[in-house]
């Protein structure tokens, strides 16, 4: 299956895989890049079957729930709990999340 | 062991608790003993909450002693490790959340706590609910209680296996493309995926927000209905959650299906499906007919496109939802010299292969130049699938079909072939795309003793109809699930 799909039409180039990984903020190993190229090509080949359907006049469905967004009063309902929120912080300083330097 | 109270249904346990014949402490202890005995082989739980559970049981016993306790008071439940539980580690089966302890409860957890339920542990799942076999867990796969060499189904495999193996009386799962119904079918328990928006998702870690829905596993339809009723209802903290009043689902369980029109979709009995699964499901339909229901042939012509539409929509939504895991505020953090490197490395080390695959596919489907061809196309096909059901429900009250084309497959059988794994969900995915309620009810087993589920699907908010049909089948079929030999 792996070989056959590798030989199948490449729906996405290695360059594109690297570009998408940059957008997704994922550092990939060269192995992962190749594997993803194969898997994504297979999936994109499979979803091509959607093109059998004529959908020019079809409205997209973005949401299936009941229509309308409920509104509420703009009031604070949760008590401040900075300490509780910071208990999971990988690094902190005082009441702040600590991260590596952003601006040189 | 001895008493085996862990094998009771919720209904039986509730009545015996109320009559003070048993205590929640005894019941909970039997569940915890069962967990200790079978977990080394099953791996249904990521975290077992022994101390917390016993404290909850003690509190429940106090409440039961005062009389007037709710249905779930003192009942031991398993919770998929995707629900935030205050003070109890919540991992989503991912390395990236391996050390995350939420400072708050999901709304559903809060509601069940208020009922006095006991939480015995956090159940295993596919990482971020992405999978059909619970093999994509950073904590190892869950095994099927009926055959340890086979999968429990996914993504809520731990919840399904725990209920099937009598480690708890019921459990909570989530269903984005079949993640409750598939493992329920594979493990021989009842699993309900309610109508989209029926149950609050506040505090439930998001995968694909227009598809995710919360639901119960139990050993009988009545038990599942009871848990669903306790979980469902409006929530000001989830703006997608419906304000419709929640019916008393138990009252719908009349045992009566006379005159009910059951639609049987031709597209759900396809070539290549397991002959035993088809025969067993068709036999169940005959039985419902004998009870006075009427079957009508229906067509859901776009069924064959559902998996393709789903894997564009769900992955696109996932790529956005999982952007929050950046190593800054919670979860694991990789060491790095600057912030971009911090994000890239944390995510590279924290996410498993399947999660990366879906983030990549979803990011691609949403990216400039591909959005119209992929994501938008998927949304348009979603409309066609939704319309299929709208048309079908003009001529029937519920739809009945298999849950999956086969019974539980072997561990490792599909892990190298993502597309084959995705196709396990071929009969469940449309229901999520259309936002409908669906349920799996055990209806038999194959030659190896592996369970087979009957899927019942209703129009939006018609949970009562599918519960009535499922309960009626369960009561009069004479089919009793054999206990797994563990």
Unreliable stretches covering 5 or more consecutive residues of chain A: 1-7
Please provide the ordered H/E string of secondary-structure elements of chain B: HHEHEHEEEHEHEEHEHEHHHHEHHEEH
H-E order of chain A: HHHHEE
Oligomer description = heterodimer
Shape of chain B: globular
Distance between the termini of chain A: 48 Å
Number of strands of chain B: 13
> Structural class per helix/strand content of chain A?
mainly alpha
Determine the N-to-C terminus distance of chain B: 14 Å
Q: What general outline of chain A do the C-alpha atoms trace?
A: flat
**CATH architecture heading of the domain at 5-254 and 472-476 in chain B:** Alpha-Beta Complex
Name of the top-level CATH class of the domain at 5-254 and 472-476 in chain B: Alpha Beta
Strand line-up across the major sheet of chain B: 1-3-2-6-8-7-12-13-11-9-10
Total helical elements of chain B: 15
Enumerate the strands of the largest sheet of chain A in spatial order, edge to edge or round the barrel: 1-2
Helical residue percent band of chain A? 25-40%
Quick recap:
By secondary structure, chain A is mainly alpha-helical.
Provide structural commentary.
The complex is a heterodimer of chains A (104) and B (486). Chain A has helices at 2-7, 14-23, 30-47, 82-86, and strands spanning 92-93, 96-97. In chain A, strand 1 (92-93) and strand 2 (96-97) form a beta hairpin. In chain A, strands 1-2 form a two-stranded antiparallel ribbon. By secondary structure, chain A is mainly alpha-helical. Chain B has a domain at 5-254 and 472-476: Amidase signature (AS) enzymes (Alpha-Beta Complex), CATH 3.90.1300.10. Helices cover 38% and strands 14% of the residues of chain B. Chain B is globular, with a radius of gyration of 21 Å. Chain B starts with 9 loop residues before the first helix and ends in a 10-residue tail after the last helix. The chains are: A mainly alpha (104), B alpha/beta (486). Chains A and B meet through helix 2 and helix 3 of A and helix 9, helix 10, helix 11, helix 12 and helix 13 of B.
């Amino acid at each position: 299956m792996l070989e056959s799909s590798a030989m199948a039409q490449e729906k996405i180039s290695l360059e594109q895989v690297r570009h998408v990984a940059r957008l997704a903020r994922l550092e990939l190993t060269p192995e992962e890049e190749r594997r993803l190229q194969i898997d994504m090509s297979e999936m994109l080949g499979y979803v091509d079957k959607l093109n059998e359907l004529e959908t020019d006049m079809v409205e997209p469905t973005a949401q299936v729930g009941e229509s309308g967004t409920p509104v509420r009063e703009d009031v604070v309902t949760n008590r401040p709990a900075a300490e509780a929120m910071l208990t999971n912080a990988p690094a902190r300083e005082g009441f702040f999340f600590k991260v590596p330097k952003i601006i040189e | 062991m001895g008493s085996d109270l862990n094998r009771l249904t919720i209904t039986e346990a509730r009545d015996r608790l109320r009559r003070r014949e048993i205590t929640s402490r005894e019941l909970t202890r039997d569940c915890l003993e069962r967990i200790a005995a079978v977990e080394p082989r099953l791996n249904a739980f990521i975290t077992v909450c022994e101390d917390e559970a016993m404290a909850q049981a003690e509190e429940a016993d106090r409440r039961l002693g005062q009389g007037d306790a709710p249905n779930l008071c003192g009942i031991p439940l398993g919770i998929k490790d995707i629900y935030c539980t205050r003070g109890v580690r919540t991992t989503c089966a991912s390395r990236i959340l391996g050390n995350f302890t939420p400072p708050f409860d999901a709304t559903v957890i809060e509601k069940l706590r208020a009922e006095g339920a006991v939480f015995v542990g956090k159940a295993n799942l596919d990482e971020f609910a992405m999978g059909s076999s619970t093999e994509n867990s950073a904590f190892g796969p869950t095994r099927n209680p009926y055959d340890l060499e086979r999968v429990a189904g996914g993504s809520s495999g731990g919840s399904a296996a725990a209920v099937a193996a009598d480690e708890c009386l019921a459990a909570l799962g989530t269903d984005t493309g079949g993640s409750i119904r598939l493992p329920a079918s594979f493990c021989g328990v009842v699993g309900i995926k309610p109508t989209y928006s029926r149950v609050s998702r506040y505090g439930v870690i998001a995968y694909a927000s227009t598809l995710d829905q919360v639901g119960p596993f139990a050993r009988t339809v009545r038990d599942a209905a009871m848990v669903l009723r306790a979980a469902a209802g409006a929530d000001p903290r989830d703006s997608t959650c419906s304000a419709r009043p929640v019916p008393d689902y138990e009252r719908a369980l009349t045992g009566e299906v006379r005159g009910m029109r059951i639609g049987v979709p031709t597209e759900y009995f396809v070539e290549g499906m397991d002959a035993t699964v088809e025969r067993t499901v068709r036999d169940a339909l005959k039985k419902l007919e004998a009870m006075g229901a009427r079957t009508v042939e229906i067509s859901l012509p776009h069924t064959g496109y559902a998996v393709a539409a789903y894997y564009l929509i769900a992955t696109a939504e996932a790529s956005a939802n999982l952007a929050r895991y950046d190593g800054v505020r919670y979860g694991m953090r990789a060491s790095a010299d600057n912030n971009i490197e911090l994000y890239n490395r944390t995510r590279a080390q924290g996410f498993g292969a399947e999660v990366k695959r879906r983030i990549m596919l979803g990011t691609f489907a949403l990216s400039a130049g591909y959005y119209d061809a992929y994501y938008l196309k998927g949304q348009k096909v979603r409309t066609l699938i939704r319309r299929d059901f709208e048309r079908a429900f003009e001529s029937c009250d519920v739809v009945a079909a298999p849950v999956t084309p086969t019974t539980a497959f072997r561990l490792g059988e599909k892990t190298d072939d993502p597309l084959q794994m995705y196709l396990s969900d071929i009969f469940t995915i449309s229901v999520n795309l259309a936002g409908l309620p669906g349920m799996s009810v055990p209806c038999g087993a194959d030659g190896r003793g592996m369970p087979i589920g009957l899927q019942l699907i209703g129009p939006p908010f018609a949970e009562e109809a599918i519960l009535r049909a499922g309960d009626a089948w369960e009561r009069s079929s004479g089919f009793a699930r054999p206990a797994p030999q563990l």
